Amino acid sequence: MLDSMMKNQYAFLFQGVGLEYQRFLHLLNEEQKDKLYRYCTIVNKEMDLDLWSYLYSSTKTKYDKMFNDWIAIYTIDNIVYRTYIENGIKPSVFLGYSMGLIIAMSCGDAISFAAGLHMLLSIYKYPKEALRREESIAVITGMTARDVDQVITQNGLKPQVEIASENSEYCIVISGKKKSVDDVMTYAIDEGALMVKEINAPYAFHSSFAAEGIEKYIAFVSKLEVLNSKVPIISCYTQHAMQEPDELKQELIKNMVAQMQWKTSINHIARTGITNFVEVSLGDMLTRFSRMINSDTNFLTYSKFVKQKSNSVSSNSDEVTNVS
């Protein structure tokens, strides 16, 4: 199975925020734990954050849980990426979902691992310093973007809530003022939504609200050392393939304030002939809604990869036993 996988073209998908990685640490083998420990040393040096103790002992840090989890995702997904590469599964293109853009840039060597840490810190700080309060992001399942837009408009909430992403036809993310986001979730359930859920992000990213106080982040990005990405990164906004520093920097700014076009991006990649997608994560959050977009696409999650690798090893072992 692994041999055949090496021959395919793959689009690597990088997740945003949401997962709590303490629940997934059992998926890491001893070699990966050694790598994680080394990465944690860098995190501690750069951020004064003991990520290892946070992950394995739930030790409190100088930051809040949300930021700790951002750093955990960023760090561990770098390790997951390298695991795929070491096993011969290599990407033709990258696509990042929200924070996943930063992880993709790190994996593509467009930025250093340390630079990505400081970028996440800048994103964490700038809304706080702008004294932004009472913002929220939520996901609505079972309604189209048009349905959600009608709910927002008909209830007079248009200035306070925006669609942040069309994850798939029936999975829509909204962003805006918390009370109005809560109202949209309530109205959506009344109108037949299957599920609504608030995302663990206290700021209205991927909306015009995120522009407030963004000047410090823009200044950070302008000074950031960015190299050509070794793997083309598909813009989640324009579907353009990016590799050069200037366009990647522009994407980093757009990634704060613009509506993501995830469904369009997945379809765009599939139309180029790349129909195999690999989720660079210990979880399967992206796969769960992305596989509903295009029936001609296939998705590989890390847990599925581990299972296939284990089966391959067992099969090879059986062959050796039979020959003996």
Briefly say what this structure is.
The chain is an alpha/beta fold and 324 residues long. Helix content is 49%, strand content 15%. The chain folds into two domains: 8-130 and 213-323, Malonyl-Coenzyme A Acyl Carrier Protein, domain 2; 135-199, Malonyl-CoA ACP transacylase, ACP-binding (Alpha-Beta Plaits, 2-Layer Sandwich).
Tell me the number of structural domains. 2
Count of distinct strands: 10
What Rg is obtained from the alpha carbons, in whole angstroms?
20 Å
Q: Kindly state the mean pLDDT as a whole number?
A: 93
CATH class type of the largest domain = Alpha Beta
Estimated structural class:
alpha/beta
Q: Any idea what the shape is?
A: globular
Biggest sheet, spatial arrangement of strands: 8-7-2-1-9-10
Tally of helical runs: 13
Fraction of helical residues: 40-55%
Largest sheet: 6 strands, mixed
Kindly report how far apart the N and C termini lie: 23 Å
Within CATH, the superfamily of the largest domain carries the name Malonyl-Coenzyme A Acyl Carrier Protein, domain 2
Please give the CATH architecture of the largest domain: 3-Layer(aba) Sandwich
The low-confidence parts are: 317-324
